[in-house]
Amino acid sequence: VSGILKETGESWVEFYCDTGRSLYEFGGINLGKWWTADGKVCFAYEYNEYRFPRCFEMFSKADGALTFLGRDDSGQPMTFLSAPPVPGDPFHLEERAVHGCALEPSV
User: Could you read off the pLDDT of 34-63 as tens digits, one per residue?
Assistant: First the structure.
């Protein structure tokens, strides 16, 4: 999945591993975890030791494009817009990340 953060215009890319892990590129590549809870999709990342998960409402358009709606630490909206998902890892995050989809050694 790839897109932009509506509020800033910054690009992002995320690959969802079949292990429940994710690789997220927003600046650098970060290993994360994803899950669903209370009708939302949630993410936590290694860069903050998985201590601050964020959950988003997720909406799909007729063309398959996705919108993730959430709030930042100050309560301001975060709107991640994506093109329709494509199969596989077209941005090669798994091969570019240090540990790929595997658990990093500290976990």
Answer: 999 999 999 999 888 899 999 999 999 999
Bridge-based pairing of strands 40-45 and 77-82 is: unpaired
Q: What does pLDDT average to over the chain?
A: 90
Q: Which of 36, 37, 54 is nearest to 45 (CA)?
A: 54
**Beta strands 66-71 and 10-16, pairing class:** unpaired
State whether residue 67 is helix, strand or coil. Answer: strand
What is the C-alpha to C-alpha distance for residues 12 and 19, in angstroms, rounded to an integer? 21
Phi first, then psi, for residue 88 (nearest 5°) are 80, -160
Q: What is the pLDDT of residue 41?
A: 95
Question: Could you tell me which residues come within 8 angstroms of residue 30 by beta carbon, excluding any fewer than 6 positions away?
Answer: 23, 24, 45, 46, 47
